[in-house]
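Subject: Pentapeptide repeat-containing protein structure
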Amino acid sequence: MGLEVAKMELEMKDISGSKFKEVNAEGLDFDNVNLSKSKINNANMSGMTLNDVNASEVEIRNANLSATSVQHANMSHMKVDHVHLFGTEFVNIVLPQEGDRNYDPNGDYKPIVFHNCNLSNMEINNCDITGLKINGILIEELLKNK
């Protein structure tokens, strides 16, 4: 089955509820779009770049995220399950700052949690580890007592 080639330029359109099945959509350029509640299944997203996105409450399952770039993103309350992260780098990860939508002046944020993960060969460099616990052990205290 051959695919019909059709280049589309959509501007100021509401395509909510649209379905794409067996479509080649390589090299799409989305700018200032609402993709909330969208579902993507069985997709090749290699080399994808996400910049200045709200990815809060996104769930990623059974994924290989190598070579994916995410910059300036709100990933609060995100769930990542059974994902390959080899070669992944987390850089400049911060809590919301004053003026950000999710900022809490009391600093009352849900903790970041890793469950049943293989973290062998993981490196943590130049990071604030205040309150970091591994298997219930406060790492700050371990380092002080070293």
